[in-house]
């Protein structure tokens, strides 16, 4: 059997020798784009020798709508309908970072209560996104009970979002100057009840998925990320934490109210698909804990929206900034450049999937069995829209 | 931080050093020293993380500004290194040997801005466009409305309004919109 192309070091970017498809030893196979959910809307062009992958190329563009270009031709406030669509299962981080960036450039101070409500919103979004991911991860390894449980509880969280913001997916709740409204009467009690149920369900998931012999056998050792690969490839979030890197923007460079919350960064060392799943499971429990802390400690009164100029004629002074937040996949960032006009000069959205789904995925896939490629993809937790903004 | 910036301004002639907010500094470097500067920042100053690289089209000045955003995990500081290059025959040294993820950004910059990075792996492959024959779409002179009107046919019943005027009329109906 021919040996798969190897990389002698993390920075060995020499492209492998071309594969002779006419030799009859290889098969070309496309994985995706067929699933409109977690890892879908992108495809992997795989070259197989037997059932082993010898080459992988990621193809994106199936969702390309030119978000960044759109934003250059729309006023600051109009862009709110655009930004939330850049990471479909996790739109809130886009709303927050875009708002925070233009608030910084426009010199707008956000009330303290709005910061608590923003952080609460971000953690609820993280929980919903992790629950969706957990379902995808177990489904990729053939455990179809878990997705039914986790997606049910994700739906309960979307119910809370609907009650709070009026929308289930694209909330547009975090707006420049603060948030749109405060918690409805009785919302806290309903949220606490759902958190209790989610926590109980996740303990079941721990037994059914994380302690499942098949899941363990298939995910342990899969998609190993060596520590020396983390910085050259720009690996962040749970993928880096599972490789032993204690990095979390909420702790390292606290924003909103994270410096007032009590939590520890979860890390692991094995750095394979199982360990990445374990880190995310722990972060789900951590997330539930953070939401409880916020519900207990957030102020119940005070302004939640700063005085704003007429946003229909809003001009922002020239400047540039880069703001980032820790989303479920790691560092999510907005680079915004303004030129004093009513339109943003340039927006660049930095999503963790950009490197996780392309450079990292293409390298980790080599040598993997075709049956495990879906599990590997999900274990990196990628969202294609943030690649082809 | 300050001593590092002083050294960089002497050794690499970096200019326009500006602190945007605590932890974020921008500076401008010449094209011919940019790769050496980035290597220096990575190997000697601890800026091991390439957050991203992108471009800004300053069509009025005839330049693209390439932006390399670097982060130092130890000092928690971010440096935004700007490099101006000509818009005509735009070309820049590849940094794929410094960061293994850089070739993806360079492939995107070639497709969407028309900036070439000779030697960058797979730089000529399509990124998110397929069979694109227009000017690179992220250039400022690419008119998305004109392109859509020329390329797609409009469907009956899908009339549109100017969003700003429409919203002004909803919010300020008694003033005939907030003109």
Task: Give a structural overview.
The complex is a heterodimer of chains A (389) and B (179). Chain A is α+β, with helices and mostly antiparallel strands and 389 residues long. Helices cover 41% and strands 13% of the residues of chain A. Chain B is built from 5 helices and 5 strands, in the order αββαβββααα. Chain B has a 5-stranded mixed β-sheet with strand order 1-2-5-4-3, with helices on one face. Chain B starts with a helix and ends in an 8-residue tail after the last helix.
Which class do the helix and strand fractions of chain B yield? alpha+beta
Radius of gyration of chain A: 21 Å
Number of helices of chain A: 12
Name the average pLDDT of chain B.
88
| Alpha carbon gap, first and last residue of chain B | 48 Å
The number of distinct structural domains of chain A comes to 1
Overall structural class of chain A, as computed from helix and strand content, comes to alpha+beta
Return the string of H and E elements of chain B. HEEHEEEHHH
Class of chain A, according to the CATH hierarchy?
Mainly Alpha
DSSP helical segment count of chain B: 5
In the CATH hierarchy, what is the class of the domain at 2-124 in chain B?
Answer: Alpha Beta
Question: How large is the radius of gyration of chain B?
Answer: 21 Å
Q: How would you write the strand order of the largest sheet of chain B?
A: 1-2-5-4-3
